[in-house]
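Researcher: We're reviewing a set of sequences before deciding which ones to prioritize for further study. For each one, I'd like a predicted 3D structure that I can look through quickly. This is Arylsulfatase regulatory protein. If possible, include the structure in token form so it fits the rest of the review sheet.
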Amino acid sequence: MTTHLSINSNENGSIDVSSFGPINLVVIQPTPFCNLDCDYCYLPNRNLKEKLSLDLIEPIFKAIFTSPFVGEFIDICWHAGEPLAVPISYYQEVFKRIDIANQKYNIKQVPIYHSIQTNGILINQAWCDFFKENNICVGVSIDGPDFLHNTHRKTPTGLGTHESVMRGIRYLQENDIYFNIIAVITQESLDYADEMFNFFWENGITDVAFNMEEIEGINETSSLDKVGTEKKYYQFIKQFWELTSQTNDQFKVREFEAICGLICDNQRLSKTDMNHPFAILNIDYLGNFSTFDPELLSVDIKPYGNFILGNVLTDSLESVCDSKKFKQIYKDMLEGVNSCRQSCDYFGVCGGGAGSNKYWENDSFNSTETQACRYRTKIVTDVVLEALENSFGIN
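Model: Here's the predicted structure for Arylsulfatase regulatory protein, in token form for your review sheet.
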């Protein structure tokens, strides 16, 4: 039987939020500022040297812990700008205030875990000491060897940043701090699967995630949007699978792990965190919040005006669910997911995709296939399935 998702209401006409959440991830923007000028970045206002007010820390965590969406844990990711552009002393005070809010409002004693997604340039011994002291997971953005990385990830004056990022990675390694990396795959990457893998492997980088260059936010075009590129992407992913398979599970690629997990455990998705309300909570440096895709918070999107649902100083998380804006966004999101379910053979490994990709590629949440889902889900699934079938002698 096909499950059709719909919006449910209570007897008083208010939206039923009992199926929303639980919050798995809270993305907090400590600053919109970034010291790089990557040409594929989706974020606007990266030159604003503002930061999240310390006075917003208690309202943020009060809103989280007093909401009905709290689950068994909360992952906090400091992201959406360059989080290390604000000083360690700022985070030391932030963590003190989080501890106070935790004692006051975390009735269920839900554990909190912290991570930081950084470009890596500012990592030094002091930051490593702070990461270790506070058990912070670290994600670093690096696009592979220097000739690929420096093509897109530059300083505002146009200088390459690879050497500086590698210096930061060496600090993490010397301090035995586990980290993962995100590599953005562009048109230039596709001819260099061997070089990318060898770079990571030879430098002790063994936990890798691929983000394709997407059309989103202020990045209105993608170098992957060219005739014949999907075939090249397939060959790139296939070669990376073959190289990864030779490491006796010592090298991980997020995309392979996700698809293999679903296939081997005989699980299928009915939704994703990026199209399910309050599985993800996104908070900008002004205390504005949204749910669904973090990439949507900082931009204006028609017909909704912007994607801000409320502010932690004035709104509870559940109260915004009865707003006209949320209801329209959620309705459009649900209709798009239902259309994907009815029309796509890959739905079980995708769950209806990300609304941000649908909006920026198709101009509507209520739509189906995107370039992003072809690259991120369909091609990867095809490569993994073919490889698994070959290993079991099915073909």
